[in-house]
């Protein structure tokens, strides 16, 4: 039943979670899984309700990974502790599928793909990653109207397009993709429970809003935004300017779903809270997205989810990637600024490995400048690595004649480099330091491998 109802792959994610946690994690089941998920508690560790107040980050209980990561929730580096040993539960905000993805998107997904590979391959944990696909929203409806096709048809085209781009960039797919339009009953249940707890209200226009002031000082725990700041509200049926839509009444001729509040569709933030909770229940290790998602999107996700689960801390670690800036202008690459390069165009002249090296050379949290110089630097580094490997192979085959190699020195340097690379990864996934350590090893290797003559056969 569960497997038939939920998106393909979710069953696999659930199996993975169950086996890895020996049945101790909450796993949703059946209709209205979002509503039920919160009720199925972990047997191993009870929910952390009422264990603290306000905005302070609560250090999770669980197993240390040996990694320190910057956590946007505490605004400092923290030990990465997984609730279930060896398994990281990870929710990634996915794309809104109405057009081709651009390099700004690529940068965020590649950087988090690198982090995922470090967590799994270097530190030996499994990752169960869920990515939500926003396949209904204002931009999709607008574009579909312009093209005179249905919004869902448009969304399917660009969802497939996004997946192809990610594959071309060698980004591992999430354990499961979950579409918003396939989780509407769960979203409605989620909103109903928030309303029942007194944190949301419906209006006569058929909209439902989250009541931000009802959260008190807990609203703003991620981004230090205070709900009581005076701002002017224009033409809205909200009670307060920072209140945000959980459910939007449909306009005439718009795609809609029936709900207790009339015909409409979900607001943006509620999608991610519901989808994450449907799979992972009341607790999540890692939540990621670009830095511009921190406010209001992640702040609002936190408010909704903590009200829904009645817990003090839903997501334990929020990681945000820095912007991709256009060299010289200091503008971030974005659709609205019309300064973007699509992933497809980029890959006609550059390779996925070159882009990945470009990403590796900066810390994932930093803004990164994109331009010919930085891409050329990345290409040169890759070239240096491959010519070193080729020389080393030639030496091993006796095809490269050079002065005697001090192997003991190289072995020692290799061991040191391995340790330095791992230490750099453990320090908030510092890939630029790891690349520097490898280039240093190559530099020393090259000095020893300096060919007297290259023997050709
Ligand atoms: Zn999201």
Automatic annotation (TrEMBL):
Single GO MF descriptor: ATP binding
InterPro entries referenced in this protein's UniProt entry, alphabetically: Cys-tRNA-ligase (IPR015803), Cys-tRNA/MSH_ligase (IPR024909), Rossmann-like_a/b/a_fold (IPR014729), tRNA-synt_1_cat_dom (IPR032678), tRNAsynth_Ia_anticodon-bd (IPR009080)
Co-factor requirement: Zn(2+)
Domain tRNA synthetases class I catalytic as annotated: residue spans: 86-379
Substrates-to-products reaction catalysed: S-sulfanyl-L-cysteine + L-cysteine = S-disulfanyl-L-cysteine + L-alanine; S-disulfanyl-L-cysteine + tRNA(Cys) + ATP = (S)-disulfanyl-L-cysteinyl-tRNA(Cys) + AMP + diphosphate; S-sulfanyl-L-cysteine + tRNA(Cys) + ATP = (S)-sulfanyl-L-cysteinyl-tRNA(Cys) + AMP + diphosphate; 2 L-cysteine = S-sulfanyl-L-cysteine + L-alanine
Signal sequence, start to end: none
GO cellular component: cytoplasm
Keywords: Aminoacyl-tRNA synthetase, ATP-binding, Ligase, Metal-binding, Nucleotide-binding, Protein biosynthesis, Zinc
Gene3D superfamilies cross-referenced by the UniProt entry: Anticodon-binding domain of a subclass of class I aminoacyl-tRNA synthetases (1.20.120.640), HUPs (3.40.50.620)
Top-rank lineage group of the source organism: Eukaryota
A GO biological process held by the record: cysteinyl-tRNA aminoacylation
Enzyme Commission number(s): 6.1.1.16
Role according to the record: Mitochondrial cysteine-specific aminoacyl-tRNA synthetase that catalyzes the ATP-dependent ligation of cysteine to tRNA(Cys). In addition to its role as an aminoacyl-tRNA synthetase, has also cysteine persulfide synthase activity. Produces reactive persulfide species such as cysteine persulfide (CysSSH) from substrate cysteine and mediate direct incorporation of CysSSH into proteins during translations, resulting in protein persulfides and polysulfides. CysSSHs behave as potent antioxidants and cellular protectants.
Protein family (similarity comment): Belongs to the class-I aminoacyl-tRNA synthetase family.
Stated name of the protein: cysteine--tRNA ligase
Organism listed in the record: Mauremys mutica
The organism's taxonomic lineage, starting at the top: Eukaryota, Metazoa, Chordata, Craniata, Vertebrata
């Amino acid at each position: 039943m569960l497997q038939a109802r939920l998106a393909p792959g979710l069953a696999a994610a659930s199996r993975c979670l169950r086996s890895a946690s020996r049945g101790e994690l909450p796993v949703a089941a059946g209709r209205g899984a979002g509503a039920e998920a919160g009720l199925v508690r972990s047997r191993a560790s009870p929910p952390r309700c009422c264990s603290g107040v306000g905005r302070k980050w609560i250090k999770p209980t669980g197993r240390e990974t040996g990694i320190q990561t910057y956590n946007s929730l505490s605004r400092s580096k923290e030990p990465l502790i997984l609730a279930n040993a060896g398994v990281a539960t990870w929710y990634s905000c996915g794309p809104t599928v109405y057009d081709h993805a651009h390099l700004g998107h690529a940068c965020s997904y590649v950087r988090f793909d690198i982090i995922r590979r470090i967590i799994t391959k270097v530190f030996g944990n499994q990752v169960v990653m869920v990515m939500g696909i926003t396949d209904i929203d204002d931009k999709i409806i607008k574009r579909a109207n312009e093209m005179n096709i249905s919004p869902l048809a448009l969304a399917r085209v660009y969802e497939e397009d996004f997946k192809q781009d990610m594959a071309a960039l060698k980004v591992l797919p999430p354990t499961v993709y979950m579409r918003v339009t396939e989780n509407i009953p769960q979203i409605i249940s989620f909103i109903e429970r928030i309303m029942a707890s007194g944190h949301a209200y419906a209006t006569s226009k058929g909209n439902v809003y989250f009541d931000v002031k009802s959260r008190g000082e807990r609203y703003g725990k991620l981004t230090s935004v205070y709900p009581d700041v005076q701002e002017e509200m224009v033409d809205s049926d909200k009670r307060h300017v920072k209140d945000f839509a959980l459910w939007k009444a449909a306009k005439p001729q718009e795609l809609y779903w029936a709900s207790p509040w009339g015909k409409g569709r979900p607001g943006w933030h509620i999608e991610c809270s519901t989808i994450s909770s449907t799979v992972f229940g009341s607790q999540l290790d890692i939540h990621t997205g670009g830095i511009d998602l921190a406010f209001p999107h992640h702040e609002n996700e936190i408010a909704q989810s903590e009200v829904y689960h009645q817990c003090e801390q839903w997501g334990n670690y929020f990681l945000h990637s820095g912007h991709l800036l256009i060299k010289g202008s200091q503008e971030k690459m974005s659709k609205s600024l019309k300064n973007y390069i699509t992933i497809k165009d980029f890959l006609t002249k550059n390779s996925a490995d070159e882009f990945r090296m470009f990403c590796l050379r900066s810390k994932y949290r930093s803004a990164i400048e994109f331009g010919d110089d930085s891409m050329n630097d990345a290409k040169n580094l890759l070239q240096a690595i491959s010519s070193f490997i080729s020389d080393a192979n030639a030496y091993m085959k006796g095809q490269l004649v050079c002065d005697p190699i001090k192997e003991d020195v190289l072995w020692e340097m290799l061991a040191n480099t391995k340790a330095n690379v791992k230490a750099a990864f453990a320090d908030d996934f510092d890939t630029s330091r790891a690349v520097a350590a490898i280039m240093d090893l190559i530099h020393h290797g090259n000095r020893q491998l300096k060919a007297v003559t290259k023997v050709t056969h």
